[in-house]
């Protein structure tokens, strides 16, 4: 033991941290799988791969990977549209794309994605998760679309009030949420047990002792749940619709993982995240998950922050957490069958609520209203349309806003009384500001000579230059000297 400690000086801390992360990850792995419409064991498989495979690879030493609530909505849509066998193909291709992007050193470019778009994406996901899991907590079937889920809540409430079993199921879910909300306020010793695990254990105990009529997790067994994609599943690659989902998986999983890496770096003083290597590590993990027919993985900030707070020092903690998940799945699979589904729904309602950045929206509204608008529009678009198109709408708005802000231009007219009017343009003259520029120039007197000075411009695009020269030719009346254009030096 002394020799082991001398060779691995952080082993004791990493071992303790791995147990904490395992206890945090266990209910989340199962809950995300159930909410995604796949066997509960597949969530554990992704957690195991995230710990043992991704955990061993370089990139970020302390962040922990596994199934994430942020991909729940997208996975549910994919399974509903293409079927469970195709999920492995989707995740496999996603992993291969991440490996290629990491090899091409594109990981760092994900940091260029607008934070408002990412937070809007997470807010939209959170809203859809909350709406969908409210139905699951009551034991009801949820509508397919995000808007349908929200619009159907009043009718669902009427159904719940008319059913004793639905009321009991909803009470178990509500009790789970209450435990999660109140848990951080308990004494420190009590909080040694992660809140999500405590909430699920208490709900399971209540359901057993009181013999409550609530649905529980269906168990298939680890090896029965793992089904590598066959030839028929790979045949789905001929379906063009599959590629939009693959692109969404790749974009969202990569962005969430790398933003998580940046957040985890702020929690510790150890080695910084190497973004390209971390993207390849995520790609390797997703490739293995795809070959096993499991859920896609991302780095998860909840598990990663728990890992740091528990005192982890090296990647050994996240690898060991994967080992504990493997031992649990292999030795105690029947324990999953005791977990009430409304308890898992309560865990995900709480997780969805935490995805909505209320404080960030308020701060952005006071300081950068354009960014706040992008965040809200992205979230609403995801709820109203779907995940992929909602993110594209947010990205498009972000690009338009950036282009608009980058095209600042100022027109200053100097009238010295005698001689020509001098019109000085400074800044960036692009087609986005062209109507404003022309309106100001056309308001100048047509019976006086004008000098148009463009030397103060940092940028003059072709459309704007053509329009300005056209205005100069047309502006002056007969008998007045034509407009003299002073162009910037080449």
Plain-language structure description:
This protein has 490 residues and is α/β, with parallel strands linked by helices. It has two domains: 9-399, no CATH class; 409-486, 2-Layer Sandwich (Transcription Regulator spoIIAA). 63% of the residues lie in helices and 7% in strands. The protein contains 22 helices and six strands. The strands form two sheets. It has a four-stranded mixed β-sheet, with helices on one face. Strands 1-2 form a two-stranded antiparallel ribbon. α3 runs antiparallel to α16, α13 packs across α14 and α19 packs antiparallel against α20 (387-406). Its main location: membrane.
Characteristic terms for this protein:
about 500 residues, alpha/beta, Transcription Regulator spoIIAA, 4-stranded mixed beta sheet, two-stranded antiparallel ribbon
How many discrete structural domains? 2
Structural class: alpha/beta
Q: Can you tell me the residue ranges where pLDDT is under 50 for at least 5 consecutive residues?
A: none
Task: Write down the Rg.
Answer: 28 Å
Total DSSP E strands:
6
Subcellular location: Membrane
Membrane topology: Multi-pass membrane protein
Protein name: SulP family inorganic anion transporter
GO cellular component, one term: membrane
